[in-house]
From TrEMBL:
NCBIfam families: yjeF_cterm, yjeF_nterm
Gene that this sequence comes from: nnrE
Keywords recorded for this protein, A-Z: ATP-binding, Isomerase, Lyase, Metal-binding, Multifunctional enzyme, NAD, NADP, Nucleotide-binding, Potassium
Domain YjeF C-terminal, first and last residues per copy: 227-476
Role description: Catalyzes the epimerization of the S- and R-forms of NAD(P)HX, a damaged form of NAD(P)H that is a result of enzymatic or heat-dependent hydration. This is a prerequisite for the S-specific NAD(P)H-hydrate dehydratase to allow the repair of both epimers of NAD(P)HX.
Reported cofactor(s): K(+); Mg(2+)
Protein name per UniProt: Bifunctional NAD(P)H-hydrate repair enzyme
Length: 476
């Protein structure tokens, strides 16, 4: 896993204190941008949109590095340049960089930009960086909207953002929109805001640039959150051969009004390695898969999942609280969910609406779904500071919160936006808990496995179903 920081300003100051000036940092940043352009773009024209701050300075330096090998044009979108941008502009002009001031764009230059974006072109977004605050000015909003429209209509455009797509604030929230990059080259270390759900459609592929210090030295000693990688997935192992089904736990699923959700969870747990799987139901279930048993109590369980399809069905949760457990779906609308919050062996898996209900029960106040989405990092962290349970806040980028730390899984896809996906995820976590995983590792492994299965699926994105996900578990 990689370290992720709310802001890297403190890290940049440390680099400067070690003798790397801001201009040296910018040279390293611009070298990373130029390297990506040379590796991925085989056309002739590179068009850079440059602001007046350090982000614009990075873009100007990158354009200067590309001059001669490409036809490079800088469009200055600010009349006021800071010292670094002024210095980089002077050097770039000496190297032959063509410069257009946005407020001097006439019909000819506007036509040039419009035509350029219809063909093969590399666009470098250096308007604003991580320091952007507030709302975009009307002219910048219009410019970015026009660029986004042209980029989306032309697969030949390579759209790169320097550090963060312009229009995203440090929290990763568009204001009101942002530059839609194919690739974002972030400087030094990744910013947490790049993994906000609202930023996902603007960031594209993320590359972290080396600013002149190894990552360990650049980030050492500073508290961070973490970005999960596939290498963090720890799938069950059956290397030891002298074993029996009892060695891999007995996973129980509480069945409610909608038994299909419990069945998906149970099948998922069975495929994820649980030795035995049972469904606890108060009514006789028809056509139950032969591999799954029906029980009337939770006696003998290694771990329990409750909430999926529960509806108005109620269970005595005292027996469940004594075991590792997964809490999902309808349980977040019952006040008794607070008992699970206080349990270190519990994993809570809400989506934003369910999390809003959970926050209300937990005393954080009333939140709309929109407020939860906007403030998902802060709310997930606050919850994990108050309660020992592990939180898995589902979304475009899933957040796992444990003991004030956030673990971000940005590897999911729109394929997972289908009813039942959460039931399957709960079953995967349940199986791992039943096999002895601690709640954090079970959550990390299951969410990464879910993302990996979706990535492996070769059918159309809209056709992906929970049953496809369960089949995919077999191929991990």
């Amino acid at each position: 896993m990689k370290k992720v920081f709310t802001s890297t300003g403190e890290l940049d100051k440390r680099a400067v204190s070690l003798g790397l000036s801001e201009l040296v940092l910018q040279e390293n940043a611009s070298a990373a941008v130029a390297k990506v352009v040379k590796e991925r773009y085989k056309g002739a024209l590179v068009l850079g949109f440059c602001g007046g701050g350090n982000n614009g300075a990075d873009a100007l330096a990158a354009l200067r590095r590309l001059c001669g090998e490409y036809e490079c044009v800088a469009v200055l979108v600010s009349d006021k340049l800071n010292n670094n941008a002024t210095t980089q502009l002077k050097i770039a002009k000496s190297a032959g960089l063509k410069v257009i001031k946005a407020n001097e764009i006439d019909e000819n230059t506007a036509g040039f930009i419009s035509e350029a974006l219809k063909g093969s072109v590399c666009v470098i977004d250096g308007i604003f960086g991580a320091g952007f605050k507030g709302e975009l000015r009307a002219k910048i909003t219009t410019l970015i909207a026009s660029l986004n429209e042209a980029i989306s209509a032309n697969p030949l455009v390579l759209a790169l953002s320097v550090d963060m797509p312009s229009g995203l604030d440090i929290a990763g929230i568009p204001s009101p929109l942002a530059f839609r990059a194919n690739t974002t080259i972030t400087m030094g270390a990744a910013k947490l805001g790049l993994f906000h759900d609202l930023a996902k459609d603007y960031v594209g592929e993320l590359i972290c640039a080396d600013l002149g210090l190894c990552e360990g030295l650049y980030t050492s000693g500073v508290s961070s959150d973490f970005l999960l990688e596939m290498s963090d997935m720890r799938l069950p192992s059956r290397i030891i051969q002298n074993v029996n089904k009892g060695d891999f736990g007995h996973a129980f699923v509480a069945c409610g009004d909608m038994s299909g959700a419990a069945r998906l969870c149970a099948l998922s747990a069975l495929n994820m390695g649980a030795g035995r799987v049972s469904i606890v139901a108060k009514k006789k279930l028809k056509d139950l898969e032969p591999e799954i048993m029906q029980k009337r109590s939770f006696s003998g369980a290694s771990a329990v999942a409750i909430g999926m399809g529960l509806g108005d069905e109620l269970y005595d949760i005292d027996e469940i609280l004594a075991l590792p457990c997964v809490v999902d779906a309808d349980m977040f609308y019952h006040p008794s969910v607070l008992s699970f919050c206080a349990k270190a062996g519990a994993v809570l898996t809400p989506h934003p609406k369910e999390f809003a209900s959970l926050l209300a029960f937990a005393g954080f106040g009333e939140f709309s779904i929109e407020e939860v989405v906007l403030n998902r990092f802060a709310l997930a962290r606050a919850f994990s500071q108050k309660f020992p349970a592990t939180l898995v806040l589902k979304g475009a980028n899933t957040i796992i919160a444990n003991a004030s730390k956030l673990y971000i899984n940005c590897l999911g896809s729109a394929k997972l936006a289908k009813g039942g996906s959460g039931d399957v995820l709960s079953g995967m976590i349940l199986a791992l808990l039943a096999q002895g995983y601690d709640p954090l590792l079970a959550s990390i492994t299951a969410t990464l496995a879910q993302a990996k299965i979706a990535a492996n699926y070769s059918g159309s994105a809209f056709s992906y179903t929970p049953k496809d996900m369960i089949k995919g578990i077999k191929c991990l």
